Prior knowledge:
The chain is an alpha/beta fold. Helix content is 54%, strand content 9%. The two termini are 20 Å apart. 46% of the residues are buried. About 1% of the residues have low confidence.
Amino acid sequence: RITQRATAAPAPTQRPDRAPVVAVMPVRAATPDVAPRAEELGTRLRAALARFSEIAVLDGAVSTQGETYRLRTSMGADGTVAAELLDVASGRVVASFDGQLGSAAPGGDSVRFMAAALAQPYGLIMSRERRLLGEPATPGFSCVLRLFDYWRHYDPARLPAIARCLDALAPEGAATGPVMAAQTLVALEQFRIGTPRDPALLQEAYLRARRAVEVSPFDPRVHQALAAVLYARGDAALGIAALRNARRMNPLDPDIAADLATRLLGTGELPEARALLREACIFVASRPAWMDFYLFLAELLSGNLTGAVDRAQRMTDTGFELNMLAQLIGARLRGDQPGVTAARAALAARNPAWLSDPMTLLLQRLPSEEVAAQVAALVADAPPSVTPTMLRGARVSCVGEPT
């Protein structure tokens, strides 16, 4: 098993506002016998990290020019792996790993854990860069990081500034894949939160997504953004296909796994969705707000009402409408009338249509009428037919895993 020990990031400093560059140094072999396995481990580490398009990866044996971080790894005579991530500017070791290779392909488990822990959107590198860069006046890579942060808090007031930052960072059609994906998602989010919704914004998001795929056809984040737009247009099957493409390009990213799970849940494909959510739970560093709702929904649709209630109670106030909906349903299921009243008032303040016509709003997120109807029935004024016996399921730590 691999363990991680990470230090806290220092206060924001002057730092180039660009995508981080990670130099993967040659793996040091303790003995000549393990040298071939060490070389294979280094190759796998470079390939795994390079799947995450928000970072640039260098072969440290060839060049370390412009590096932001340096990954130094060694392999013991018994196959144990030790690694540390160095912040080059400060000389500070910001994370360390150790573990066994296991019986699978050389470096398999260790590589996956390290790559996901370091390079996913809410992993160590991106979280550290968010804190170090802050929100500079001059647009840079921090614009992309600010959108990642938006999915944690869902503060619509921040969205216009993020949109301006991204558009100023690179002219349309000349941006990198992650920037174009972010521009696509901002336009889509502006469409979603608009009252009334402006179809022109959805069309803008669609055109941006198509251009992004043309410019960066092998970028998994671009295909993930395309999937979100297709789904919003009502093309659920095409959206799921785009997410499967994204997952083929980067099967190591728990954010993509969770995103695919949410789309499958929305169409009623429960077994695969639960498996993907379980995988995401294992590897995700810090869950964005939207993932919490779909973990709740997985338990609700599986009939584990105790697990669903437990999920709803553990949600934090992020302003995400679906999480507010889950908190309303959770309060209703556990018979907490004051909680129901408070949750209904909060939802009404955000979007009154959740109380007057939840089915229409749910169908925009959950294409299956059966799934949407099951959730909408729990939002109605009349209390649901829930007995204490129905709430004797298992509390869960992940998906279907009792605490």
